[in-house]
Amino acid sequence: MTAGVTRVLLCYQPTDGGVGRHIGDLAVGLRERGYEVVLCGPAVPRDLTGPVEHRYLDLRRMIAPRADLLALGDIARIISEERPDLIHAHSSKAGAVARLARFSHPRTPVVYTPHGYAFAGHFSRSYERLTYRGVECVLAPLASRVVCVCDAEASLARSIGPPSRVRVIHNGVPSAQGGPVDQRVADLSRLGPVIGALALLRPGKGLETLIDSLPGVLEHHPDTQVALLGEGPDLDVLRARARLRGVAHAVHFLGPSAEPLAALRGMDVFVHPSWAEAFPYVTLEAMSLGRPIVASDVGGVGEAFIDGESGLLIPPRDDAALTRALLVMLDDPDRRARIGALALNHVSRRFARATMIDRLADVYDELVASRPEQTHDPSPHYRRHRARWQGRRSTWRRSTR
């Protein structure tokens, strides 16, 4: 490490969606500001441009006891080899592994960003929520700082850990530029106004609510087209639901989008009907293109815009409320245009990507400045502790062959 240069290890899982986008923005923005960045995760986020050092870490989305224990040993080794000044862990799995690694590297500060606490997500059984909350309560004291992407997430963080360590730094996006329109969405727009959503096709994203709202929408605007961009395990279930509601002719499952902005440019109304969220990037991206938004009032979504002025908020899981909000947008093109223009102005003033990265850099600098000097010769206690972890890791590797 060059003297005076802060070395940051960004640890993460997953590699796609909002977390992947966040990691890519951080890696680029921090390097532009003179930081050394090392990525540590299952893969390099696909949207990341330019060369970056990456250390492979086998982090899996679901709980996998053996793999997770091996990952804990691996990250301890990576920290020893990379010698970062600071670790910033993103989402639950990476956050758990990075915080537990403080037992072997207590002098290295750990920043944790949940990107939506797991216990605040969608669960079909209440005991799962309680289990995840209990884990977060146990791990909370190990984070040097908890950086939350919205006030709603920060409120949860303060309820389970030391409030003085919590910071709020909203996600930010760059100014949108003109560009192409996704041809699939453009083709639909020739048939009628396009309502669009970009989401993983899985439980909790609220696409069921959107489909259930459509009979009332199509009754008044029968030429409306619905573009759903994304992939996931619920594709067949959602298709069946559209057939059951008699709206399959208007609902188009277009698959994933390599260029989300291109898809958003072709939409007349963007809808985000999720049942649980933190502070999603996609709503900010839609706003940056002047798209009028209808969204569920969950997590920090309501912090992104002013209800009734730069977007419309509805209760989650309320298909009747979603029907009414979509009709407001479709009935009055002039109002729709005003809402989109106000959304663009709002996101430009409050949620700039450069501001997000500058504020994160301030948190890093605060921690690094107060970090005790680390000697190059680890203490005997540290060497014994590291040896025990390496021995356990080897044992687990042999047992899984």
SSE blueprint:
Blueprint: E1 7-12, H1 17-32, E2 36-41, E3 53-56, H2 65-82, E4 86-90, H3 92-100, E5 110-113, H4 126-139, E6 145-148, H5 151-160, E7 166-168, H6 183-189, E8 194-198, H7 207-220, E9 225-229, H8 235-244, E10 251-255, H9 260-265, E11 269-272, H10 281-288, E12 293-296, E13 312-314, H11 319-331, H12 333-350, H13 353-369, H14 380-399
Parallel strand pairs: 1-2, 1-4, 2-3, 4-5, 5-6, 6-7, 8-9, 8-11, 9-10, 11-12, 12-13
Helix pairs in contact: 1-13, 2-14, 7-11
Distance between the termini: 36 Å
Total helical segments: 14
Oligomer: single chain
The helix/strand order is EHEEHEHEHEHEHEHEHEHEHEEHHHH
The backbone outline, from C-alpha atoms, is globular
Radius of gyration: 23 Å
Which percent bin holds the helix content?
Answer: 40-55%
The CATH H-level homologous superfamily of the largest domain:
Glycogen Phosphorylase B
Q: Can you describe what's shown?
A:
It is built from 14 helices and 13 strands. The chain is α/β, with parallel strands linked by helices and 401 residues long. The protein is globular. Helices cover 45% and strands 14% of the residues. Helix 1 (17-32) crosses helix 13 (353-369).
